[in-house]
């Protein structure tokens, strides 16, 4: 019990006064194995360089479509999987963060011994993958998860009492009659009660199961909870119950949430700040109102335009997006959204793959292609079976039938016999930039790179 | 179908974990007994077990080794109904009834030992492979592949042949062969169960790997093994009898396979009883366990269980 | 063209011809605990060329209703306990014929209607496609099955019987060998080309880029949105009179969902196909439907023109459902949740199914089945609030009302 009190003491203060989770350049790449020897032939870049900060008492919404990496990021933060790059820090103070960023900016070999020592000290206290002993236990107690699927997140062979009481038992907080009472009070705090103690999960409805999951997450009185699509599997009427409950718990217990969802309406309602993810990267981040009223990224705009909304004008039609999400093992150059972006510009990262995709989707000229010799993603030679096809491709690419934004990015197209030499203007990767206080975006239409246009 | 609200049975408030678990056990039992075919199988099994248990009461045990057939050299090839030999005698003066009754004991020993040993080895190996994964899985599964590449019967035959003809060697041979199947089943189940979010949840609350294995993974993986083990209780007696039949156990053992083998020469000359009664027992034994195994599968199948 | 029968049936004062009319449909499921009344006296019309949205939460019976149009409800445990589904195909209507009852027609008649006059698309496009067949072959089957006459057109009226049989996919082994021999080969090839043209055209209509290339692909090579397009192409291949869409975008991302929704709407308008669109998502249904029917616990709670229903919902359930959708009107923590859960539908007593969760319920709600009342032109509701006390044999103050919150 003392530890609990110590924690709540520690937790006094105002909302947002210190970070709970700090993500610096987090990467999670899954190896793609192939062949008999299971050789690694590439990596699916599920999360590719995400930096975020979640401050005490706030709700950060994480929104994006399936496969954008939001769930993987949630799993990294909650310690279920280890990131393959970057760092996730628990309760990293602003001072330490500044120091750490300073050190990280220095290349590894040039760091002074003091810098190394400082870094080691910060990591052993805050980096979740390096924590041990008490620090690890503190992180484990304070970071909990509620999953989307309340069917698979409760062990079908355990009784509610064992499921909700398990964290208490593991951390030796209670046993016997005291444990039962604690479980009852947890169940009561999520709108259930003593009569549910000795039942199996399958005897409950979806909404009730989600309540049990929440009770389990609350058992150790955590500071921070990752909510991974907590209401996606529920009906609207039940979703409303759960969303209200989550808000009530946050208010009463000073909880910090990471709210992951694909549902814009839900995220808008529940979040103080929202980060939008696309293909492993955060493309825009800002306060909920800012983001919804003045989106500064075409992808966010596209999400909003596609979202059917009961509040919207009846005559306002929803709009979708062209094309499909590119392969996360081989993400596009520049802005990753440029392949589907309705307002793409010449500096958004046009590359050889875009030319090949265009040839295959819009023309039949690709059938004759035999090979692509790539010097870089911006510079390649396309080999064709015969001179005629090469000629036709060359003509098509120069005649202005390519997408209007791609044409100026084509530095040169030359036909050499049965080969077509393609060169695009190389562009650097896009960077997140603050365009208004607290509002960051990576879209070149809004950042300092606008000047290049 | 999925759109239909699943009826949730109304459950009176329970007072403790034990009552709930007992009630659940009761429910499963009732559900199992609702299938008449399963009940038939169970009845046969109970009778067989009773027979094995009461063997020393039903017959006078042969001295010094009751598992050896008593020989009555005064009554060779007597047909059923002969006084003192209600099921007749064999060509060597063995009482068929004695063989049938003590054979049930032999069979029970055989199947219990083999199933217990193979389930244990199989569960351990399969769990290591499935739960740890990676290199451990690779290596263990290649070992399993090697075992699987050899036909069971021939493999058992080879082992028994090398170790010499004796019933205990048959047990050993079958144990060596049969664990592979369980290792496979449990590994597949564990890999599947591991992906459930309750396993992740357990990690998030800080539980140790071993306890996650014991509480979350194993209990949810074990049911197919239980079904398979039930069926193998029957199958193993069948294979054991086959091995005995071709002469891999001691002559004169009170074992159904041995009896069938010894009696087969008489069939062509009309002395059908020495082979038929033990053969019938083998058939009933295997059938009964298969019936019960099928019934269990229906009840324990996770897809129907949660209803 | 409007058959007299069709005009007469309309219970909702419709002036348009009907494609289908569901009357008092009841579908029960046999379980150990008793009969589950999954669909319990549902009536609605689908008018020619309209999109009717059928909206409701999990377990309300909307999918079962939709599946019963094609007799796809597994039986047992399903039981068609009553009512009928009248269907007018364009052909019978042109001939001035009457409707057929989809629940009682012979199996071979059903086969002729299924996939031909009534088509269906499902929630999970991955499961609805055969993984072992290329997209082209998959779609070709529809044409062979239902449109073989068109395939024979380029051969003129005197196509050999053997080719006719090939176009109907009835060829035996010997015939298949004969088809490879010179005199027939070119003709068989013509049929095949014709099929490919049809398939490509069908795919192109769903805005699939480069359809000829897609035809060689297998389902697993396509994204979810692309698969759903293929299924839409397949469903619309025979120009059906009625398209049943059962949550076709639920498994898709929101940006893809918008495209599929617009595609369905566009094709529907161009071909004047009637659509029964099933969804749990109110905002989606509002987007696509001309009229909307709200289902709760196996019954229709309210039905009316989309504008009317969303602007002035009559049934307490419709109101609660709309209030529960997160929107900018709501403050955090103040969503109007509907307390409680959907009742079990095992051998239910007469009552309004919503009375256990309804904030305005009165005693009569738990005792008497509400009648379906015409509130307005084309807007009906099943709620005692709008009923006549005299009809129920109670005093006016015993009637539930919006002025009185009982919980």
Explain the overall architecture:
Chain A is built from 14 helices and 15 strands. By secondary structure, chain A is an alpha/beta fold. In chain A, a hairpin with a 2-residue loop joins β14 and β15. Chain A starts with a helix and ends in a 12-residue tail after the last strand. The relative contact order of chain A is 0.10. Chain B is mostly helical. Chain B has one domain: MetI-like (MetI-like fold, Orthogonal Bundle), CATH 1.10.3720.10. Chain B is built from 13 helices and no strands. In chain B, α2 (36-53) crosses α12 (273-300). The longest helix of chain B is centred in the middle third of the chain and has 37 residues, at 96-132. The radius of gyration of chain B is 23 Å and the shape is globular. The two termini of chain B are 13 Å apart. Residues 1-12 and 302-307 of chain B have low confidence and may be disordered. Chain C has helices at residues 4-9, 62-68, 90-94, 107-113, 125-128, 135-146, 148-152, 161-167, 173-178, 182-205, 211-214, 224-236, 254-271, 282-288, 306-311, 316-324, 389-392; strands at residues 18-31, 34-47, 51-55, 78-87, 100-101, 118-121, 242-246, 274-279, 291-296, 299-305, 373-376, 379-381. Chain C has 17 helices and twelve strands. In chain C, 35% of the residues lie in helices and 20% in strands. Chain C is of the alpha/beta class. The chains are: A alpha/beta (453), B mainly alpha (307), C alpha/beta (407). The B-C interface holds B 1-9 and C 29, 31, 33-34, 36, 38, 58-64, 73-74, 297, 342, 344-346.
What is the SS-derived class of chain B? mainly alpha
Q: List unreliable stretches of 5+ residues of chain B.
A: 1-12, 302-307
* DSSP helix fraction of chain C: 25-40%
What sequence of helices (H) and strands (E) makes up the elements of chain C? Answer: HEEEHEHEHEHHHHHHHHEHEHEEHHEEH
Number of distinct helices of chain B: 13
The major β-sheet of chain C equals:
8 strands, mixed
Q: What's the count of strands of chain C?
A: 12
- How would you name the oligomeric state of the polypeptide chains in this document? heterotrimer
SSE-based structural type of chain C: alpha/beta
Report the end-to-end length of chain C measured between terminal Cα atoms: 52 Å
Counted beta strands of chain B:
0
Q: Tell the overall outline of chain B.
A: globular
CATH class of chain B: Mainly Alpha
- Give the H and E element order of chain B: HHHHHHHHHHHHH
User: What is the count of DSSP helices of chain C, taking H or I runs of 4+ residues?
Assistant: 17
């Amino acid at each position: 019990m003392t530890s609990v009190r110590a924690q709540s003491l520690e937790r006094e203060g105002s909302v947002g006064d210190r970070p709970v989770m700090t993500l610096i350049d987090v990467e999670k790449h899954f190896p793609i194995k192939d062949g008999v020897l299971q050789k690694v032939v590439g990596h699916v870049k599920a999360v590719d360089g995400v930096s975020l900060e979640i401050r005490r008492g706030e709700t950060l919404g994480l929104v994006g479509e399936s496969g954008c990496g939001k769930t993987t990021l949630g799993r990294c933060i909650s310690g279920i999987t280890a990131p393959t790059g970057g760092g996730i820090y628990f309760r990293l103070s602003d001072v330490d963060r500044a120091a750490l960023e300073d050190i990280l900016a220095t290349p590894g070999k040039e760091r002074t011994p003091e810098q190394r020592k400082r870094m080691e000290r910060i990591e052993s206290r805050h980096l979740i993958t390096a924590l041990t002993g008490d620090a690890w236990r503190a992180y484990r107690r304070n970071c909990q998860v509620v999953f989307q699927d309340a069917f698979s997140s409760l062990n079908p062979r355990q009784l509610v009492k064992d499921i909700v009481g398990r964290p208490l038992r593991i951390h030796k907080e209670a046993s016997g009659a005291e444990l039962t009472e604690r479980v009852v009070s947890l169940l009561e705090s999520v709108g259930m009660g003593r009569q549910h103690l000795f039942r199996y999960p399958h005897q409950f409805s979806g909404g009730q199961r989600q309540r049990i999951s929440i009770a389990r997450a609350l058992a150790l009185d955590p500071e921070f909870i990752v909510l991974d699509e907590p209401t996606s599997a529920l009906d609207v009427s039940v979703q409303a119950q759960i969303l209200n409950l989550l808000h009530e718990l946050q208010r009463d217990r000073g909880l910090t949430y990471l709210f992951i969802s694909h549902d814009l309406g839900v995220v808008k309602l529940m979040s103080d700040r929202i980060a939008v993810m696309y293909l492993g990267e955060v493309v825009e981040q800002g306060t909920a109102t800012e983001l919804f009223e003045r989106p500064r990224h075409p992808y966010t705009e596209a999400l909003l335009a596609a979202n059917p909304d009961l509040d919207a004008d009846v005559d306002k039609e929803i709009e979708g997006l062209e094309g499909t999400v590119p392969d996360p093992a081989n993400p596009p150059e520049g802005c990753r959204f440029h392949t589907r972006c309705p307002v793409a510009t010449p500096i958004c990262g046009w590359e050889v793959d875009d030319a090949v995709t265009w040839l295959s989707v819009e023309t039949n000229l690709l059938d004759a292609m035999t090979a692509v010799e790539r010097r870089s993603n911006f510079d390649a030679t396309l080999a064709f079976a015969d001179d005629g096809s090469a000629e036709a491709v060359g003509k098509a690419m120069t005649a202005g039938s390519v997408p209007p934004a791609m044409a100026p990015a084509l530095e040169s197209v030359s036909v050499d016999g049965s080969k077509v030499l393609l060169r695009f203007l190389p562009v650097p990767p896009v960077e997140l930039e603050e365009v208004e206080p607290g509002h960051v975006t990576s879209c070149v239409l809004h950042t300092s790179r606008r000047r290049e246009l | 179908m999925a759109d239909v609200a699943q009826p949730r049975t109304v459950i009176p408030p329970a007072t403790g974990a034990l009552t709930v678990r007992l009630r659940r056990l009761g429910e499963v039992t009732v559900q199992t007994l609702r299938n008449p075919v399963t009940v038939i199988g169970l009845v046969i099994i109970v009778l067989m077990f009773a027979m094995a248990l009461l063997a020393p009461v039903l017959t006078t045990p042969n001295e010094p080794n009751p598992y050896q057939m008593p020989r009555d050299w005064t009554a060779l090839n007597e047909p059923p109904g002969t006084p003192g030999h209600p099921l007749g005698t064999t060509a060597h003066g063995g009482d068929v009834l004695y063989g049938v009754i003590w054979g049930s004991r032999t069979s029970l020993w055989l199947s219990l030992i083999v199933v217990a040993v193979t389930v244990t080895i199989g569960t351990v190996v399969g769990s290591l492979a499935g739960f740890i994964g990676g290199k451990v899985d690779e290596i263990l599964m290649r070992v399993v592949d090697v075992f699987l590449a050899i036909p069971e019967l021939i493999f058992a035959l080879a082992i028994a042949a090398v170790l010499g003809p004796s019933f205990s060697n048959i047990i050993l041979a079958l144990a060596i062969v049969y664990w592979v199947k369980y290792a496979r089943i449990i590994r597949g189940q564990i890999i599947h169960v591991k992906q459930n979010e309750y396993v992740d949840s357990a990690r998030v609350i800080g539980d140790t790997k071993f306890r996650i294995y014991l509480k979350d993974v194993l209990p949810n993986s074990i049911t197919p093994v239980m079904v398979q083990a039930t069926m193998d209780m029957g199958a193993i007696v069948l294979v054991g009898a086959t091995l005995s039949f071709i002469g891999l156990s001691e002559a004169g053992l009170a074992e159904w396979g041995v009896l069938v083998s010894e009696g087969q020469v008489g069939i062509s000359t009309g002395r059908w009883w020495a082979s038929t009664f033990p053969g019938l027992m083998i058939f009933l034994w295997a059938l009964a366990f298969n019936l019960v195994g099928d019934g269990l599968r229906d009840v324990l199948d996770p897809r129907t269980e949660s209803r | 063209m409007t058959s007299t029968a069709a005009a007469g049936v309309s219970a909702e004062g419709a002036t348009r011809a009907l494609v289908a009319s569901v009357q008092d449909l009841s579908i029960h499921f046999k379980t150990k605990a008793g009969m589950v009344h999954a669909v319990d006296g549902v009536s609605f019309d689908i008018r020619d060329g309209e999109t009717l949205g059928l909206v409701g939460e999990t377990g309300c019976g909307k999918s079962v209703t939709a599946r019963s149009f094609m007799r796809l409800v597994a039986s047992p445990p399903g039981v068609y306990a009553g009512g009928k589904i009248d269907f007018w195909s364009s052909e019978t209507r042109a001939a001035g014929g009457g409707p057929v009852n989809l629940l009682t027609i012979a199996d071979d008649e059903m086969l002729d209607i299924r996939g031909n006059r009534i088509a269906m698309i499902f929630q999970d496009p991955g499961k609805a496609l055969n993984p072992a067949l290329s997209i082209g072959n998959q779609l070709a089957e529809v044409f062979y099955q239902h449109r073989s006459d068109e395939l024979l057109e380029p051969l003129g009226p005197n196509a050999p019987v053997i080719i006719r049989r090939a176009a109907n996919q009835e060829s035996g082994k010997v015939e298949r060998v004969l088809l490879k021999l010179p005199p027939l080969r070119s003709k068989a090839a013509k049929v095949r080309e014709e099929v490919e043209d049809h398939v490509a055209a069908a795919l192109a209509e769903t805005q699939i880029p480069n359809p000829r290339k897609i035809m060689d692909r297998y389902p697993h090579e396509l994204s979810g949105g692309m698969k759903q397009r293929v299924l839409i192409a397949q469903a619309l291949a025979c120009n059906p009179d009625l398209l049943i869409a059962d949550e076709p975008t639920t498994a898709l991302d929101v940006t893809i969902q918008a495209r599929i929704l617009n595609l369905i709407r566009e094709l529907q308008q161009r071909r004047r196909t009637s659509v029964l669109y099933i969804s749990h998502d109110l905002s989606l249904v509002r987007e696509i439907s001309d009229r909307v029917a709200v289902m709760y616990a196996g019954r229709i709670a309210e039905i009316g023109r989309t504008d009317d229903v969303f602007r002035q919902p009559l049934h307490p359930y419709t109101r609660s459902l709309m209030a529960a959708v997160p929107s900018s009107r709501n403050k955090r923590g103040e969503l109007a949740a509907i307390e409680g859960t959907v009742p079990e539908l095992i051998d239910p007593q007469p009552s309004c199914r919503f009375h256990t969760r309804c904030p305005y319920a009165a005693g009569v709600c738990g005792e008497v089945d509400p009648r379906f009342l015409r509130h307005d032109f084309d807007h009906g509701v099943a709620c005692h609030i709008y009923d006549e006390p005299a009809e129920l044999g109670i005093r006016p103050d015993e009637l539930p009302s919006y002025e009185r919150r009982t919980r």
